[in-house]
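Query structure, 302 tokens:
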């Protein structure tokens, strides 16, 4: 990662202790960090567990300066493993969403509290920016993006006002449109609405939910016996996808409950640990408020 860039700050990875604990019993071999970010989890696991050979991925091209990191979407990791004749991995960690590093670099357009261009692409080579969504998509589609990615109940009104306020050039222009759209409300409600709209556009621009689905469904067959899949999620849409896939992986029969006999031939591949979900400690939340929305889920291969 380019540490000379303006705005670079060293951040501590979320739930490092808990991540270290759930991967401790994984067998030696290649351990994948699917979301390298600023490398905090990666470095921590590397230092603590010499038994693992760390392999890092991130879609953000700013991270390319770190030579050992592969610049790919995590939905492409299974293709990468196949192409490189890697048959098995000891485990994989996903730390979803946007990094503090991306948020703190206002020129990336992720932050609603500072001005920047309407970008929000995690990979700066991707075609669609938030600018395109806000300035060229039709009203119904914008409303649906906001509603489906955040449940925002004013989605239709906000979409209408976005379309009527074009061109919207910057993050702060978008913030003003949203504020005007919802009118006089308490500041917390206004902030939450803006946050939900920004999150919706970011999820859409980066195809975030499909990426999670595709990656988890294709990676699970690579994990060795006793290896783990660990996910850190930050909102309910991410968490729901992980929960559903983990439920399928840890169940032997996925037939409709009304069927008298099993026809699915599904085999249980993974099991849950002692706890299905783990949350950050109060001390961590105090030190790093961005950890407050984190949920850790993991499953172990049988
Ligand atoms: C929360 S940060 C990870 C922080 C990291 N665990 C650390 O300790 O520094 C999420 C990272 O995942 C990357 N990312 C998000 N979606 C991705 C995807 N579909 N494929 C690859 N990388 C992705 C983002 O670019 C970002 O750098």
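Result returned for the query:
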């Amino acid at each position: 990662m380019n540490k000379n860039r303006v705005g670079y700050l060293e951040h501590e990875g979320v739930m490092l202790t808990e991540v270290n604990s759930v991967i401790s019993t994984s067998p030696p071999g290649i351990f994948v960090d699917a979301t390298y970010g600023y490398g905090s989890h990666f470095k921590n696991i590397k230092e603590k567990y010499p038994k693992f050979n760390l392999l890092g991925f991130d879609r953000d091209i700013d991270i390319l300066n770190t030579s050992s990191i592969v610049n790919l979407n995590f939905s492409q990791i299974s293709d990468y493993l196949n192409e490189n004749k890697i048959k098995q991995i000891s485990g994989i960690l996903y730390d979803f969403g946007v990094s503090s590093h991306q948020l703190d670099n206002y020129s990336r357009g992720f932050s609603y509290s500072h001005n920047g261009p309407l970008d929000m692409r995690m990979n700066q080579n991707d075609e669609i920016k938030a600018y395109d969504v806000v300035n060229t998509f039709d009203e119904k589609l914008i409303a649906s993006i906001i509603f489906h990615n955040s449940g925002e109940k004013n989605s239709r009104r906000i979409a209408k006002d976005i379309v009527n306020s074009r061109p919207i050039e910057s993050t702060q222009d978008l913030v003003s449109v949203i504020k005007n759209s919802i009118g006089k409300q308490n500041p917390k409600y206004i902030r939450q609405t803006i946050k939900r709209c920004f999150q919706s556009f970011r999820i859409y621009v980066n195809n975030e939910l499909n990426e999670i689905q595709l990656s988890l469904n294709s990676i699970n067959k690579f994990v060795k016996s006793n290896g783990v899949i660990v996910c850190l999620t930050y909102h309910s849409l991410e968490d729901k996808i992980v929960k559903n896939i983990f439920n399928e992986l840890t169940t032997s029969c996925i037939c409709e409950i009304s069927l008298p006999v099993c026809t699915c031939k599904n085999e249980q591949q993974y099991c849950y640990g002692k706890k299905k979900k783990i949350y950050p400690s109060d001390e961590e939340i105090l030190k790093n408020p961005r950890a407050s929305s984190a949920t850790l889920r993991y499953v172990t291969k049988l």
